[in-house]
Design a protein that fits this description.
Elements lengths: L7 H15 L6 H38 L7
């Protein structure tokens, strides 16, 4: 799975699907380990995207504050 081509939402949906698959009792060990590994990579992608969004929002907020606009929290 290529990190650059997947949106946060796509990665999150696949992660949810993997969680459902891992709950199945008929899943073999090999498949479970493979899915778990994919899930870890997707978790990293989601975390990175969320962190990037947080940084962008913080930057935009600071830009507004510096322009004299008051932001209510």
């Amino acid at each position: 799975m290529k990190e650059g081509n997947d949106t946060f939402e796509t990665s999150l949906r696949r992660l949810e699907e993997i969680a459902r698959l891992l709950d199945r009792e008929d899943l073999g060990l090999e498949n479970a380990v493979s899915l778990y590994e994919e899930g870890i990579e997707l978790s990293k992608i989601c975390f990175t995207r969320l962190k990037e969004a947080e940084i962008k929002i913080t930057t935009l907020k600071k830009s507004l504050e510096n322009s004299g606009t008051i932001i209510e929290e």
